[in-house]
Write a structure and sequence with these properties.
The structure is a homodimer.
Chain A (H helix, E strand, L loop, with lengths): L8 E7 L3 E8 L4 E8 L6 H17 L7 E7 L3 E2 L4 E3 L9 E2 L1 H9 L2 E5 L1 H12 L8 E6 L3 E7 L2 E2 L31 H4 L1 H14 L16 H9 L3 H25 L3 E5 L7 H14 L9 E4 L4 H14 L9
Helix pairs in contact in A: 3-9, 5-7, 6-7, 7-8
Chain lengths: 328, 328
């Protein structure tokens, strides 16, 4: 018989391109302790899993040991909840299909579930954030790529094969920019980080108009630096976000016409561009949305912040996994 | 106390632009009896409701009376399940917001639920048709307009305000053709009935290339007549469906990348164009879909036919309504 111990905590893990964060979280979403390491140091998946397990065990031991840990939830790019695998990530160094949940479960002796970053954040927003109390809503994360997680009937949608929400890879410009995923004209090639930089570079190349952006070394330019130019009144920099916001507005209006969410929560690094992005986005969204839902869909910011938001979502996933038992 | 009678039948009503069909259906989807009248004879909503109620009562009386009728399900363009209203239909003669479910309930003394045509067909396909046993799938109806109804977690999606699935009104060509809904570049302005005719007329105007389509009186040309030209090997007619299928393929690939359905069932008058439409559609769909779901989404035809399919869906809706009682 399994012993009767109250398992009052879970492990939430967020893997991003740059950093892997591991946290011990209680059922009310309090982060008891957390730690992180650079994802980029582990281009080999076995090395990554070793480091991840060692760090998780160490963090647990520093916080009273394994006994109180119920399960593990993990957010990772291209993570598929239905298979427990990372599947053909265009952005991560680990190629092909990797059974990450099983690899961790076997090493840790805990139930492990994985999903992708946007779906995990949607779970966090549903339980602890802006979407609390909503049954139909979507989270859009814009950073390195563009991800989307959404709820229908108060449940997270996974789709038939675990890959719903690939809004970033819908075609917005036929025969448009080449995407890392192999398709052309994908939304994320225009509105995620690299896409915005590409728009800026194209605009600088296409005219002789003066711009503060021209003073920035093209090898270190970032969306944040372009926002800095906007704040100094730079016309071309403002136009970069206007183009980005307008295109994103059409894509989100199309998405809303399909899914009809109560709210769309926009988060991720690019959301920090603030009104430079959101003003044209809202105008375009409002003018492209189907008349029967016009004015009904809220565009919201996340009320959870940064790294904590990411591990919180993963911790909610952990509570939804059936507890692991050797006696199946 | 309500009397104990086994209510083993429902009324399924399908309202299309041309015809209103009323059927008595049992729980296994057998159509016991049905009748119809021209919708176009009733441009005034009160006249329409009078005719509909009289016909429904007559049909019930001809089939053993009201006692065995449990409830009424109704499929109508722009019908909103959540409000019971027809809301601002761009295609029907009745303008504004019409509380159709309440109007019928008050007249018939039966519980009444309404939804739109595509959602009703999705319910029919789920219960009696091609989608039986699926949890995540979509139905696309292409005729006068383009509609979409889809399931997630084995439940029909309504969205937050009852208007999910407006795929026909997503923008596929920025600043494109003007749509009856007020937007520009909507999918249905290209791939539904009028859109296909417009493409044909544009192609005839843009070149001097000979075509059998030029022999058809432009005031009576239909997609069916264009299919006839295709079958005689007419290059331009074939190109009309190639353009249509290619654009629809991109839109359905984008839809699938968002919703990740197990299958997309394509139905409605335009689906009768067969391989002239489906070959280019499939090619375009396959080359625009996100790699992780490529080859996983089935494109299926409906196994239910015509008018029966439409009332069947409405009858499934009827079973899902709580039975009406005067003692609430």
């Amino acid at each position: 018989m399994a012993e009767a111990v109250i398992k009052s905590r879970v492990i939430g893990i967020d893997v991003s391109f740059e950093t892997t964060t591991i946290a011990i979280v209680d059922i009310r979403g309090r982060v008891i302790d957390k730690t992180d390491f650079p994802t980029t140091d582990y281009p080999n998946i076995n090395g990554f899993v070793n480091k991840l397990c060692e760090t998780t065990i160490q963090l647990s031991e520093n916080n009273g040991g394994y006994l109180s840990i119920r399960s593990v939830g993990m957010s990772v790019p291209s993570g598929n909840y239905l298979t427990g695998c990372i599947e053909n990530s265009p952005n991560m160094p680990w190629k092909g299909v990797i059974p990450l949940a099983a690899m961790l479960r076997d090493r840790l002796g805990l139930a492990v579930a994985i999903t992708n970053d946007s779906k995990a954040i949607a779970m966090g927003e549903f339980t602890f954030g802006s979407a609390h109390g909503m049954r139909d809503f979507a989270v859009i994360t814009i950073g390195h790529g563009l991800g989307c997680g959404y709820y229908s009937h108060g449940k997270l949608c996974n789709g038939a094969s675990g890959f719903c929400g690939e809004l970033g890879h819908t075609c917005v410009i036929p025969n448009g920019r080449k995407c890392e995923c192999g398709l052309e004209g994908c939304l994320e090639t225009y509105v995620a980080e690299k896409g915005i930089l590409r728009t800026a570079k194209e605009m600088m190349a296409e005219s002789d108009e003066p711009s503060l952006m021209r003073d920035i070394d093209p090898t270190v330019i970032t969306p944040k630096l372009i926002v800095g130019c906007c704040e100094k009144g730079d016309k071309m920099a403002i136009e970069v976000f206007k183009k980005t916001g307008t295109l994103l507005g059409v894509a989100l209006a199309n998405f809303a016409s399909i899914v009809d969410p109560e709210a769309i929560i926009i988060t991720g690094g690019i959301a920090k561009a603030g009104h430079w992005l959101f003003d044209p986005l809202w105008e375009s969204f409002d003018s492209h949305i189907f008349h029967n839902i016009r004015g009904k869909v809220k565009l919201l910011e996340s009320t959870l912040n940064g790294r904590e938001r990411d591990v919180l979502g993963a911790s909610v996933l952990a509570w939804n996994v059936k507890e692991y038992s050797l006696f199946k």
